[in-house]
Design goal:
heterodimer, A: six-stranded mixed sheet, four-stranded antiparallel sheet, B: mainly beta, 0% helix
């Protein structure tokens, strides 16, 4: 079945630093790819998604590009803020409308 | 729209007790899901439903049961609670299989002692 591997955390950055969180996937076919964000004490929220190869998802300054050749969907942001501190989950779609999640990467941004 | 709501927010159970975690969505979504999130781990799918009256097992269904009598409600039942069921439980819903964007509730933190 499909699976997702993302870089381990925690990641600690200073405000305005560049962020990359790596995510690679294995899948049959070409599933949709997602990044979800979980702020402290809350449920997950969809951050961005891409539904086919070479698509770029973007939202709130975050971007990720669906790379079929490297089976990757790395999350990037040019200048992080303290308010970006959260846990980020990469996910891939599976049959029957199910999502397969990575283990999550905790990001802490210091002022 | 309230979105996906879950009750209770927190609960402590003794080993062997039973309880039902409630989940309701007001978006008329057909698909609904129950996940558990253990510390430092991703989410694991417990059960899911593609519509009223239809449910199916996910990755980790043992020790849980579900029902889906209406589009809005998808309760998760724990029978004979065990310490291994200590976790945070999230309910989610989705309007359609295509794109599989899911909307999550705020979670229920359950401790079994």
């Amino acid at each position: 079945g499909n699976s997702v591997t993302q870089m381990e955390g925690p990641v600690t950055l200073s405000e305005e630093a560049f962020l990359t969180i790596n995510c690679t996937y294995t899948a049959t076919g070409y599933p949709s790819l997602f990044w979800y964000v979980q702020y402290p004490g809350e449920g997950l929220q969809l951050l961005l998604k891409a539904t086919k190869a070479d698509d770029k998802g973007s939202n709130k300054g975050f971007e990720a590009t669906y790379r079929k050749e490297t089976t990757s969907f790395h999350l990037e942001k040019g200048s992080v803020q303290v308010s970006d501190s959260a846990v980020y989950f990469c996910a891939t779609g599976n049959q029957g409308g199910k999502l397969i999640f990575g283990q999550g990467t905790e990001l802490s941004v210091k002022p | 729209n309230a979105g996906v709501t879950q009750t209770p927010k927190f609960r402590i159970l003794k080993i062997g007790q039973s309880m039902t975690l409630q989940c309701t969505q007001d978006m008329n979504h057909n698909y609904m899901y129950w996940y558990r999130q253990d510390p430092g781990m991703g989410l694991k799918l417990i059960y899911y439903s593609v519509g009223a009256g239809i449910t199916d097992k996910g990755e980790v269904p043992n020790g849980y049961n579900v029902s889906r009598s209406t589009t809005e409600d998808f309760p998760l039942r724990l029978e004979l609670a065990a310490p291994s069921q200590t976790s945070v439980y999230f309910c989610a819903s989705s309007p359609t299989e295509r794109g599989i964007e899911q909307y999550f509730g705020p979670g229920t933190r359950l401790t079994v002692t």
